[in-house]
Amino acid sequence: MATSTVLPEGLSSSTVLLVLTLGYVYFLAWTFGETKKIPPNAKLVKIPSFSRWTVLPAQSKYYADIVRAPDKHLSSQQAVNEFLQAELTLHTDEIGDNIQIPVIVNTLNRSLGDLVPLVHDEAVLAFDEAFPFDDSEGKSEDGWKSFKISRPIMSIVGRVSNRILVGLPLCRNETYINTNIDFAVEVVVMSHVLLAVPAFIRNFVNKLISPIPKRVKQSTAFIQPLIDERKEKEETFGEGYEKPFDFLSWLMDTARKYNKPDRDVILRMMSTNFGSIHTTSLTFTNAMLTLLAHPQYIEPIREECDRCVQEEGWTKAAMDKMVFLDSFMKESQRVDVVAAILGNRLAISDFTLKLSSDGDTSTDSSSSEGVFIPKGTMIAANLVDAHFDKDVWSGKDPDTFDPYRFMKIQKETGRQWVITTTSPNILTFGHGRHACPGRYLAAQEMKLMMAYLVMKYDMKLPGSEKAAPQRPRNLWIGNNSMPDPRVKVLLKRRSEASSGRL
Q1: Which family is this sequence assigned to (predicted)?
Q2: 171 is annotated as contributing to ligand binding
Q3: What average pLDDT does the chain have?
């Protein structure tokens, strides 16, 4: 399997490091000395981030008021454009109208019952190819084999996602999947590189070193023939043409409705792949490593998954019944943060932000305090504070990993707390009206992948037979946290895995 380029082609790691270092020095040159202690009555604070100051709520409860602010004042899209340099990396100058969002919300999410069996069908082959056992290289006499998991997990996520996005046979084309994986990595890398240099030269730097135009050409070479073929069949068979049941078909219909060119469809497919592969891979890999660090929970999860699949097959109904697996992965979302700051909003006009005294979003705004927010202010959530807030998780020890946490909360409160639930204190998928619209499919994919993993394989961390397993530490790159791509795990195919349930 091809390895990720990780860094933009033609740019050495030392050059990238130099650019990032110079950019950070440039930023510190005008921010040094401005940081002050937080007053005890503060509701908002500003902190230096990689390329600018960011305003955070001093307490996580106030983020609820931030996400309720009107888009005409606080823009999620403009914030994405800045911190991902999305006009240059994701071409939001062309596709920033987000007309694909209703397709995800109204068509894709409502089709999950039909899509989950397709995800399983693809996962079976994807796991076999990502973790091969046919050769004896690296395999012990008792069947254990060591694998780096970062790239294989991305490959599996890429395949199962694209079974829904473009369908067969393209979802099984290794070069196409690797193109999307490389694109997902390069968007993040290039956003850091571009933020590290002054704004007035970002366009020049992007044209000089960005590998993304090449990725667009590569994706076009795969998707354009598919679009042409489908258009030709539609013209030939008319109303008798049965369109493929995938996201590409729905995007083509949307493009026709808004008179968009084929390039628009291709760029939206790439953007959707970025969202699918990047966050889903990080979240799943985090959960897998956390499970291996708490091996006492493998068997309870395995038993639940096996029972649900026996009752419902590999369906959405089975995934919905896996309540312990859901609680485990939700707790991993809480503990294994993917960033220190998330949920950004950019002030596109001067306005007064109403902050309720207790963070209660139902509070009448007339009784709320107002804080003046100047145009150009970046506001975000402190993910670490939100996910470990001792006031919110009072009596539940937020510093301790508890896979039963959300099952207990549901039982105590009667409120649904599942992997897709968002709140000001669970922000992996965002919160409010701009929460990730694709999280429902991502959750089904991750739960199905984890269920298949524990049912087909025994697994452990290297050295865990000699000492209590310790979760491998994540890497921090700027504001972002990610599993160390060098981490290896030991897998062994289970003898029970030959059952028809897989």
Answers
A1: Belongs to the cytochrome P450 family.
A2: no
A3: 88
Cβ-contact 405, 396 below 8 angstroms: yes
Distance from C-alpha of 89 to C-alpha of 96, rounded to nearest angstrom: 12
Any idea of the CA torsion for 168, 100, 273, 338, to the nearest 10 degrees?
-140
Return d(Cα 88, Cα 216) in angstroms, integer.
12
Task: Give the three-state DSSP class for 354.
Answer: strand
Based on the number of CB atoms within 10 Å of its own CB, is 494 exposed (0-12), middle (13-18) or buried (19 or more)?
Answer: middle
Residue 10 has pLDDT above 50, yes or no: no
Neighbours of 168 (CB within 10 A): 13
Contact present, 54 and 382 (Cβ < 8 Å): no
Residues 6+ apart with CB under 8 A from 180: 158, 162, 219, 270, 273, 274, 277
* Other Cβ atoms within 10 Å of 437 Cβ, number: 21
286 contacts 338 by C-beta, under 8 angstroms: yes
Question: How much is the pLDDT for 363?
Answer: 38
389: left (phi over 0), alpha (psi -120 to 50) or beta: beta
Could you please report the per-residue DSSP string of 239-301?
GG----SSHHHHHHHHHHHTT--HHHHHHHHHHHHHHHHHHHHHHHHHHHHHHHHSGGGHHHH
Residue 34, SS3 per DSSP = coil
Packed helices 212-237 and 262-293: angle between N→C axes, nearest 10 degrees: 120
Please check whether residue 133 is in contact with residue 152, taking contact to mean a CB–CB distance below 8 angstroms. no
Structure tokens at 238: 């008319």
Q: How many residues comprise the chain?
A: 502
Closest CA to 444 of 110, 100, 106: 110
- Residue 356, pLDDT > 80, answer no
Residue 176 corresponds to which amino acid? Y
Distance linking the first and last C-alpha atoms of the chain: 24
- Which tokens in the block code for residue 259? 């008179």
- Cα separations (Å) of 16 from 7, 51, 184, 210, 482? 8, 16, 17, 12, 19
